[in-house]
Amino acid sequence: MKKFLTVTTAALLAVSALAQPALRSGKPIMSADEKGLAPLGVTQAIATRPIGIAYVSAESASPSLFLMVRSGVPTARGIFYSTMEGTEKAGGRFVFSPPAKLKPYWGKPSNMPSYGCVFQFKGRVFSYWAEENTSLALASFNPETREVTKVASVPFEGLEGIHYLSAIEGPGGTLELMALVNDGSKYRVDRQKDESWYDGAHIYKGAIARGGVRRAVVKDLLKGGRFEEAVPQDFMISPTGTVRIKDDFLGADGYLVVNRFGSVLWSDKSGKHYVRDGAGKQIRYHAIGPSAVALCLRSGETVVFMGGEGSISSCSFEGMGQDGPLFSGLRTVLQSKGALYTGSLGVPEVVDWDDDGLLDVVCGNSEGRILFFRNTGSNVAPRFSGFPEELRCEGEPICIRPGYIGVQGPFEAVWGYMCPAVFDWNGDSRPDIVFSDSRGKLEVMLRRPDGDLARPFSLKEDGLEIHGLWRVKPAVTTIGGRICVVNLDGDGALHRWWKTDEDSLEDGGTLLHVDGKPITTYTAKADRDGSLGRVKINLYDWDGDGDLDLILGTPGQTCLPHPEKGIPNGKVLKQQMMQVFFLENKGSDAKPRFADPVGFYVNGEDLPLGGHANAPVPCMLGDISLGANLLVGCESGRLMWISRGDLTTFTIKDRYDKR
Amino acid sequence: MKRFLIILALLLPAACRKTPPTPTPVTPPGPVVVDGVAPESGGLLKATLDGGLAPLSFTKTISNICVGAVYQSGKELPDLFFQCPTGVSSGNGIASCLGLNLCEFEGFTDNGCPVYSAPVPVTAPWDQSTTAVKIMKIGNDVIAFYVTASKIRTAVYDSASRSFGTQWSGNTIALSGLPRDPMGFDIIPGSGNSAELIVICSDTDSYKPSMDDVSESYYDSAGIFRGQMYYSLVYRITLNLSTWKQVGSATQLGGGSKVILAPTGIAGFKGGVSSGYICLNKFGVLKYIPSGNTSDCNYLQDVTGTELVNPFVSSNVLSIRSASGADTPSFVVSGEGAPRYFKATGALDSYGSPVFDGPMDIVMKNGDLYAGSLPVPTVADWDDDGVLDIVTGNSEGRLLFFKNYGSNAAPAFGMAEALRSNGVEICFRAGYYEVQGPFEAAWGYLCPVVFDWDGDGLNDIVFSGNEGKFEFMRNEGSKGSPKLGARQGIFLDGLELYGMWRVRPAVARVGDRVLIAMMDSEDALHLYEKAGNNSVKDLGRLTLQNGNPIYGHRATASSTLGERGREKLEFVDWDGDGDLDLLVGTPLQASVPDPAKGLPWSRSTRGLQTLLLQNTGNNSAMKFAYPVQFLFRGLDFHIGTHANGPTACMLGETSGNLPNLLVSGEGGKFFYFDRADLTTITLW
Fold first, then answer.
1. pLDDT tens-digit profile of A415-443?
2. Shortest alpha-carbon distance between residue B561 and chain A (Å)
3. B441/A465 touch (CB, cutoff 8 Å), yes or no
4. At B284, phi and psi to the nearest 5?
5. Which helix (H) or strand (E) holds A515?
6. Which segment of A222-231, B81-90, B167-176 scores lowest on mean pLDDT?
């Protein structure tokens, strides 16, 4: 049965155009929608996970979501909360305030507990945090000061192996705690660093660990309790979040469990069920590793919020079906005054995708999707909606993922790491997509007349798929009338191929440094494993001298141009920087020779955007009187725009001198 | 740089342009209008339409390599010699084509496909596994050149005895100046006593990575192949046919060491608009080196400017010179599939390479049904016309439909139709990342089962292949007009359902439940229940009566883990007791149910690698008896070491309302067995 949220009129959002400037040098591009609506998230966080939802005081008209950020640049890590402002007028999605950082008792982010949950109990907000195998830390919350203060260490039995906690206020003045526990099998196995995670039959060497739910009922928060099995330990592969849902009116009494692949299952007395929407379609979170929290709103509606390495989504419980519970489909949770969000590890291209004369942003992400941010402003003052379109392939949204066979194992099955380059591959004047991703293939999707993309096909050399290192954005351009593609080859070197047919390339050799050696991306300390690759490549005449230079985005552990000495070389230099580099072409396009890389400062300082690869692209957005500016996709899913006038450079020597 | 054809494609007749290659299946109007033939027990299913038109095929062999072309007076195309190096010997009343065969040119089909006679055996002095053979006419003699122990030898053909016997020259010739033994060669007779010898050699000594442990992957932890992918080196050597000696040193062609990746064959090309050499690789790619120019090497193109690719794993390319020798030669590519003909158009592209039309099927009359190597059939009424058809996967990764124009008792099949997914011809292959290394990229090993997966009353395709994952294609058509949509994953808790490679899943509907069984990550039979179109629930391993798991592999495997998997499973109530039994087709090295003792490996004799596991429980709680192996009329019936593809079928005599058995062999053909002729043998 569908329930409808009855929110007071006062809580509904007023429509007022909030003129957020889209471009601010060194900052994320902001949403140009009314009130700056965009997906809820913490800027510069890779994953924003809900850990609780509560009315922070008896007077609160709206609940607040509590969010945990464990990864990303250090300043982004911490605990946040965000208060519901109402619902979006057009789509009815929940809108929250911009997340505000809390002041937890543990101080530095590096001391953050590995898990915790925030909950409402007898009208106040408390939290439990991982502490030891025999206790949880109980903390109170002061909404005025935003302080999370430890009250006591509370003894609990059955905490061994727990890695996730959620809580919901139960009947009779009790609190129900739900914890996830694994089945004890070992996902990772010992191996040589360069040895595949898969055996000779392409079977993963470790165990596909499963997990279940333990539950504890607490009457006195200070006295603790005992966790006991509520859902068997082999219930589901790699669960990452669970909530208890008990609704006597609608006949629900069970546990909703989500896992790292976004699957949503239900466990109750009748067994295991997939959670479905009213049309019978299984509900699936769209990204990796969601947590889940639930709240019965004052309207009586039970809402589940899920969030992992992707935007936060919500769905409402609608009743029990023949085969498990029914929920409304997942909908994105929004915030006001938000920045554009591409999903984590965005890899942007700036191109007029819709042929309206304005430069748009087409962006791949770690989910394996490609998003289209339409520019409704101008190139100088662009306006992008916080709600991009998903590009489609033969009618279906693009979502290319490795599945079971992934460089770093099957638990990365839903990380696609789409790295698209937009280029008119077949010369029909429509932009196509040439891409690589977490599978290391090099593929093309041609644009159809109806605007959709056709199914991908692999580029081959002598009939064999060209296969390089993973998560690399290829550069595609035309040189002397021939189309060339630059990608990272299996040796981690920049390698050029020439197009000979629609699906066929011929070898053009490695790109060379001015010293005559191939330009490689790995460090002398690197293992041949998943840390390789990940480089985003652009060929662009950055210095305006008439030939194509290289603009590269790299992860922190890359070492350009040679393994022995280079930048950013994080394993050796241990310096944080914006991992975007310019390699000047000292030769010609036909016979290029590239100088040592120089890195970019912004206003004379480093702008660290995270250890994962940055994805730069030169762009003609904003004031271009000095030439192309820079747009950088980063691990947090934000698009950083940097005015060329604010860019200066450093050399390899500068960095080694700084050690 | 875009290439432009010198001769416009429009000048060519429409029938010669791309894709008329396969003779169109005859489509008689109405439901059952063709008199079929009752299948012969222990025999091969025959093509019966249009005079039994079928791809030129070879019985009980896998790879069929065209090694020679010799004109008979007045014929438009030459007779062809085929060397078939691998497969099964003659037996059980069916002759094998192992060794050398001759197929005589008989004419053309209406749409221009060459028709050849059924192969007849030819005696030859070389070992049947030798593939480095070239046969040609020099003067009045038909000469075979063959390489053994790095030396070229010769033999002369005696048409009366259909044998190659005496040496054409008294000597063998040892080649010098080559870095390694030739992988392929051709000889191009010149003027006088001179001839060109063209050879290809690998540029490396070993392809496979070093393996301290046979359980290791061929790939490193960055997903990159650990071995060395080799390219071809091409050399030209002048021979004096009179003295039968090499003249001068070898000249390297093609501009260096990377002429073509994974080379398999080379053909001299002389006459007409261009002279040069065609290089072929495993993936069917064709490149051309013009003679007189030692540095160029370009992809061959068709009349549309598209690069030519042979559609299956390719072993050899043979020039088909015109009878007069004056016209531009055509060529034949052969390997693990029916040979294909690429017809010269007489045009050149902008690089001076000849342009070809094709590939076209080479066909025969009164042929057997042929589906390409390692077919995996299901017998089902695919087009809802009331009679049972055959839908089969094959090693190329394609899905073929043999429509039955006859009846179930006396079927009438013709040429196969290649099925499509979302409008594109199905060809599912793993690509670079393949269990046995990237050079197996042109094998797909599609293992489909026809089943109404989504319960909408239409047959869908549930399948696996060499990627080891289990997927389906939904039939988005209508009754009588099937149309497959895009492939879709099947997931367990959001993770792809994944197991051993090259396994056909068994799928069945039990009440309102749909069950699917496959070989799991430890090569054990595992059962799942469909929970949605794209998801399953884990029901655990299938077991024997004693509760033990049912494994597929032997303990003494000496090679890599790629030996595992490969089983073709099917649920069927074989014994008519009301519950589902399991048919299991296996490779020779399988050991079901126990690695230490199982079928077929633990038996000392080679037989039909088709096992039956009777369900001694029920469909809700399956338990299986020890497997039994089928015998035909009390005897073993060996049809190949690669996995058999069995399927129970209601073709032929089914008065007892119990199924007969159809089993595909590695050679691409379908053996039919009346159940009355089947007995079983076991080890327990």
1. 999 999 999 999 999 999 999 999 999 99
2. 5
3. yes
4. 85, 10
5. none
6. B167-176
Token output for B494: 């959001």
Q: Which residue of B has its CA nearest to A284?
A: B494
User: Which residues between 503 and 522 in chain B have a beta carbon less than 8 angstroms from any beta carbon of chain A?
Assistant: 521-522
B405-445 residue pLDDT tens: 999 999 999 999 999 999 999 999 999 999 999 999 999 99
Contact A456, A466 (CB under 8 A): no
Strands B376-380, A639-642: pairing kind = unpaired
Nearest CA in chain A to B223: A407
Element (H, E) at A580: strand A580-583
A521: left (phi over 0), alpha (psi -120 to 50) or beta: alpha
Phi, psi of A657 (to 5 degrees): -65, -30
Q: Is the separation of the CB atoms in B263 and B202 below 8 Å?
A: yes
In angstroms, rounded to a whole number, what is the distance separating the alpha carbons of residues B402 and B393? Answer: 11
What does pTM read for this prediction?
0.94
The residues facing A373 across adjacent strands are A361
CB contact under 8 A, B565 and A201: yes
- The reported pLDDT for the residue numbered A408 is 96
Separation between Cα atoms, residue A571 and residue A628, nearest integer Å: 32
Structure tokens at B453: 């997966």
Q: Is the ipTM of this complex over 0.90?
A: yes
- B281, pLDDT greater than 50: yes
Q: Do A199 and B564 touch (CB under 8 A)?
A: no
Contact at CB, A528 and B469, closer than 8 angstroms: no
Work out the mean pLDDT of chain B and round it to a whole number: 92
The token pair that represents B660 in the structure block:
């007969």
Rounded-to-integer distance, Cα B334 and Cα B83, Å: 10
Query: What are the backbone dihedrals phi and psi of residue A248, each rounded to the nearest 5 degrees, phi first?
Result: -65, -35
Residue B6 has pLDDT above 60, yes or no: no
Given B262, B435, B495, which is nearest A413 (Cβ)?
B495
Query: Which one-letter DSSP state was computed for residue A393?
Result: E
For residues A37 and A31, is the Cβ–Cβ distance under 8 A?
yes
Residue B172 CA to residue B147 CA, distance in Å, equals 9
- Position B20 scores a pLDDT of 39
| Beta strand residue intervals within B502-640, DSSP E | 506-510, 513-519, 525-532, 535-541, 568-572, 581-585, 591-593, 598-600, 610-613, 628-632
Per-residue model confidence as pLDDT tens digits over B516-569: 999 999 999 999 999 999 999 999 999 999 999 999 999 876 667 899 999 999
Give the minimum alpha-carbon distance from A194 to chain B in angstroms, rounded to a whole number. 5
Q: Which of A485, A481, A570, A480 is nearest to A522 (CA)?
A: A570
Residue B168 corresponds to which tokens in the numbers above?
């054409």
